[in-house]
Design brief:
By secondary structure, this protein is of the alpha+beta class. It is 52% helix and 13% strand. It has 3 helices and 8 strands. One of its GO terms (molecular function) is carbohydrate binding.
Length: 252
């Protein structure tokens, strides 16, 4: 009995310590899991804060861009107003220029004792149905002819109808004259204002246009001229012929 008592206290002590160790182990495991959960939450909050800061920075940059756009729009409004005013001034200047040109033209005709019926054309030009025509006496290449006409605020002649064909050919036969017809730009015949041309065989010399290359000038024949009988023929654009310019007449 005395031996039992001697071992009873240490045994109970050991059991109590074991129970305490188990309790502490379980508690420590729960605590560790809780701490891990807290750490994860803190980590998630850090990510959320970082994402928020990034979004805030992007929003600030976007706000700056919007302000810059607003500034640009306001500047463009001012510029558009200036451009609109400038366009009005240019239109006024254009009207005044035309009026001055008409008065000048009228005075020239009075000095030269010539008629302005059908509209006013510069001296040396011929008026027909409110259009001015210039039949040159000198010869140039097709390109040179086109460029000279443009210096006169005109263009190589565009023949639109039978009456115009008849009028022009009455003034060209039996000479050769360049007109504003070419296929050099696209390979298809078109007028100088880039209006497509539909070939009328009755207007051409038989067998033309033939894009002949035997002239030795390089390339084929890309430009049209009025032949001595008033019909069309294609020829190398470097050939030098007389030419016809055309522009609207001025109203007096």
């Amino acid at each position: 009995m005395s031996r039992f008592k001697r071992w009873l206290f240490p045994g109970l002590t050991a059991v109590i310590l074991l129970i305490l160790i188990i309790v502490l182990g379980v508690t420590n495991t729960k605590t560790s899991k809780y701490l891990w959960s807290v750490d994860q939450r803190v980590s998630n909050m850090s990510d959320i804060i970082q994402s928020f800061n990034t979004s805030l920075h992007q929003a600030q940059e976007t706000a700056k861009q919007v302000q810059q756009l607003q500034f640009t729009v306001e500047n463009n409004k001012d510029r558009l107003t200036s451009v609109s005013e400038a366009m009005k001034q240019l239109a006024l200047i254009d009207t005044l220029t035309k009026n001055i040109a008409a008065i000048k033209c009228s005075l020239e005709h009075i000095i030269n004792n010539s008629s302005t019926t059908g509209g006013c054309c510069p001296v040396g030009w011929t008026v027909f149905e409110s259009t001015c025509y210039f039949f040159s006496s000198d010869s140039r290449s097709w390109t040179g002819s086109r460029d000279w006409c443009e210096t006169q605020q005109a263009h190589l002649v565009i023949l639109r109808n039978d009456k115009e064909w008849d009028f022009v050919t009455r003034n060209t036969i039996p000479q050769l004259y360049w007109i504003g017809l070419s296929d050099s730009r696209t390979g298809r015949w078109e007028w100088v204002n880039q209006t497509p041309y539909r070939i009328e065989r009755r207007r051409w010399i038989p067998g033309q246009p033939d894009s002949w290359t035997g002239h030795g000038l390089g390339g084929d024949e890309d430009c049209a001229h009025l032949h001595s009988d008033g019909r069309l023929n294609d020829h190398h654009c470097s050939a030098r012929f007389r030419f016809i310019c055309q522009k609207h007449s001025l109203n007096i």
